[in-house]
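Q: What does the assembled structure look like for these inputs?
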Amino acid sequence: MSPRDILAAALKEKRFKLLEHEAFQIIKYYGIPSPEVVVVKSPAEAVELADKIGYPIALKIVSPDITHKSDVGGVKLGLKSREEVGKAVEEMLRTVSLKAPNARLVGVLMYNMAPQGLEVIVGGVRDGIFGPVIMFGLGGIFVEVLKDVSFRIAPITRNDALGMLNEIKSSKILEGYRGQPPVDKEAIADIIVKTARLMEENPEIESIDLNPVMAYPKGAIAVDARIILKQG
Amino acid sequence: MLDSFFNPRSVAIVGATPKEGKVGRVILENFIKKYKGRIYPVNPGYNEIMGLKCYRSVSELPETPDLAIIVVPAPSVPEVLRELGEKGCKAVIIISGGFKETGTPEGERLEHEIKELAVKYGIRIIGPNCIGIFDNWSGVDTFFLPEEKMKRPPKGYVAFISQSGAFASALMDWMAYNNIGVSRAISYGNKIDVDDIDLLEYLAGDDKTKVILVYLEGLKNARGRMFIETARRVSMVKPVLVFKAGKTSRGSLAAASHTAALAGNYSLYRSAFKQAGVIEVESFDEMMDAVRILLDQPLMNGNRVYVVTDAGGVGVMLTDALTVQGFELPRTPPDLKEELRKILPPHCIVENPIDLTGDTDDERYIKVLEKVLPRSDVDAVVVVALPQVPGIKGGLADYLIEAKNKYMKPVIVISIGGEEAIKLARKLQENGVTVFESPERAAKALKVLYTYSRIKSNIQG
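A:
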């Protein structure tokens, strides 16, 4: 399905927060690196796909009615074999239907876990005056506590995006510190530019958070995507 | 398109009155004093005002005025606007208040009505609830503050756009006091039509404007991108300085995402200014210093600054201030050192900041500057001239005035002190050499000049 179809379907069902796999499909369409995700309905289906996806595997329950997935047993991480995956899916479906009996369950999202990198955040929001605005920051306390982020108003060029990386106060961390190698700035800039395009081409989207994006010495990958649609 | 506002051949003043102290009187007086075109007072109560024939209504005017100024009470404005529309007038300044800013349904309704009339008749509107335009070159002056209360600045090359009428008035008075020339000033009040973007566009093409100042509280909805695009274009032609008021945000309400929560109003404006190549200033002083340096100094090719001083202490302060602003103070290169050694007494310091010490005279400064200024590895020179030293008599000032044009690179002066310092500063400034009272202000202003030099040469920073 194209982003247009996904957005139209969600709006038709009056869902203003896209399901995780829908958000991943949209960012993938725009060429933003992200894990291959599948939604499975049964343990058998999961077991069958596990080898192909590769380990470690993460599982997340997919439901328009569940916001805090881990509270209802809807998240399992670091699964290392077919057996573990099969058992985990079975258990998840059982626990979730016990703890959230009224929730509609679409299935279980399954994907290969990206290795730990430097966590950064790329986000977009639609402003009344400026239209789509893109944000960049480092993950964790840098965003939460220090609010050390930079913004640009779309459309943005690659140069703008690199400027955003250099503008934050903690930008030195991107260059590598305490023996950490420098991260791939070009790859992050690429994600920023693509996020801006995504916001521009889809006016239904109110905001997007790619949080975190794992940045590596070579490449970067959005391991979580949250897309909120405009209401009304 | 907006030229009728600034260079009208005829003007109707609807609500003109002979009554002392009234807005309609001050504006009419302003026009009679300075404006060379045809003036038509409109007021049903008079046959003549201040020696001019007065018309009972717009429809009775002998011609279509290029510009109309409305000062009648808000409830009568729609009717006047309709008559102006029928008459074919295309540019209107509505001074009157009593519209949306009152927060009343009636005010809201009236504003909506005039908006619709403007669209219907294709009229461009500045205002309502504004002080309008002060144009030093054409004599259009709707600033209704009488001259004895608000001095008018001399004719010159600084234009400003202000969302606040009070700020515009204060700025005018201040610039008059400091003898900084103004080309045109606009305060647009509720900006139901003409806004910052239209005005920037107009001023970009205005050959009487060399520097544009903008006092901004907020842009109209959905105009952000247009502002960036326009300001970017304008900045390539002439510098745009912006003072943004309303920097603290109330915080986003129930923000649905991280990004929304962090995208405070002001942080977006800051990014927008950066993307637009607009230079933000943070105080009145900074704004004026920036204006002066941009008006008088050539652009910089790089960020290497040399200091020539008669006071070691000020040299150190200046070094700090310049470094904080990101300037490089290179060590004096060996060849220059050698040359300076030859012409300076042994107790002088040839290392940058070059210290001529308190026993210097005009001649010593001139000899050193003649070595420093022509060098291609020098991008700007700051001369600290504390006039309290006995050797400074006036020759230095004459030299600096000449040197600035000769070497086409910024030469700015720091002069600290009382009467003597002010005398020196005045002489220099009247002749286009920028003077500052403190190292910090000089460094900040030079930074603005450098930033604009970079914007103009299109290097992203």
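The domain at 36-112 of chain A is CATH 3.30.1490.20 (Dna Ligase; domain 1).
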